[in-house]
Every structure is written in structure tokens, then in C-alpha cells.
Write the C-alpha cells for this entry.
Amino acid sequence: LAKTTQPISMDSYEGQEVNITCSHNNIATNDYITWYQQFPSQGPRFIIQGYKTKVTNEVASLFIPADRKSSTLSLPRVSLSDTAVYYCLVVDHNQGGKLIFGQGTELSVKP
Amino acid sequence: NAGVTQTPKFRILKIGQSMTLQCAQDMNHNYMYWYRQDPGMGLKLIYYSVGAGITDKGEVPNGYNVSRSTTEDFPLRLELAAPSQTSVYFCASSPGTAQPQHFGDGTRLSIL
């Protein structure tokens, strides 16, 4: 059965690169890994999605190793407005397509 | 476009009362989802729907019911409210199962 594990919290300073890793064992070969950002009192917002190697968009990069047992969300040059909770989401088709959200990583960016 | 709209934003219920949380989306998405998020925790899937007339249980369905009579609407019903159902409820929609979900801003529900 798939399970996800993320660090509970991380601290950073403005301008630094932040890498948040999600461990997810036992996901299927073609299943996507998706990352969301959530601010207080708001619903999660999609950041990036991929299923192998590296994906980059205007806000983040996603690195997925060949064994797909983890993925790393990379936020370049964070600012105070990146302070939020970040969740990974995987689909466990071994459980009939069950959606598995990570517990979330609370990122605090300091000036 | 409004995206995903949830009503009400806040509600206080007494134990044993019932209520319906409303969710509507205007993106013509086939998939819709209901999650609950307890303080400091991640999201847990309650129910989901892959299209009008089709619903299925998620990870924590007990105490809840759903219906999907139209593509746009996916209401969540609590029949006999219990304190354990105090939570923030999020509705989401997506074009397909592997595609990014769009979330509403949540309904904050307290049961006393």
C-alpha cells in the first residue's frame, strides 16, 4: 500500500532555494506525483506535477528519481509570500486509485 | 469563472443535527471530491465522483452521504452531526483522475 512521508516543517530565508522531499513507496510506474501549496484559510492550490525525471514551470521544479520512491519539490529564491504548507499527492492504483495526500510540510520563510 | 464555490463558509451545529454542505464548479469537470482537514493535518478523502450519477467512497466516508445529480454540483450531507466531524471541509474538482485538482476555500464546521 502506498504511503507518503514529508518533513513536518522547514525554515528558510528569503532568496534561498528550498527543497522539500516526499517519500512515497509503492506507487505505480505511470502514476503522477502532484504538489500543492496551501495558505491559511484557503484551499490547496496546484503547483506542479510529474511522473518521472524533472519537470519545471514558472514557480517550481519537481525532481523524481528513477526508482520513484520519492520526489523533491524545489522552490528557487523563496520570498516571504512562499510561507505556506506544501503537500504531495500520489495515486495508489494498487488500492483502486486511492488518493494519498502527504501530511504536509510547513515552510517558514524569514527575512 | 468562479471555479469551485463552497457554501456556507462557516457553520456551527449541535450534536445530532443534520446539514448539507454545498459545492458547485463551473469548469465542466467530470471529477469532484470532498475532503476533510483536521487541525494541523493533511487532507483525507471522504467521497468522490467521476461524473453525474456516479459516486464512490474515499478513505473516511462514515457519517457522510453524497449525491451527484448534475456535473456542476456535489453536495455533502451530514445526517447526525457528531463532535468528531468538527473540521474544515474542502471540495475540489478536476477534468480527470490524474489531472490537477481545483479546490474551493472550504467550509469550517464546528459541532458542539
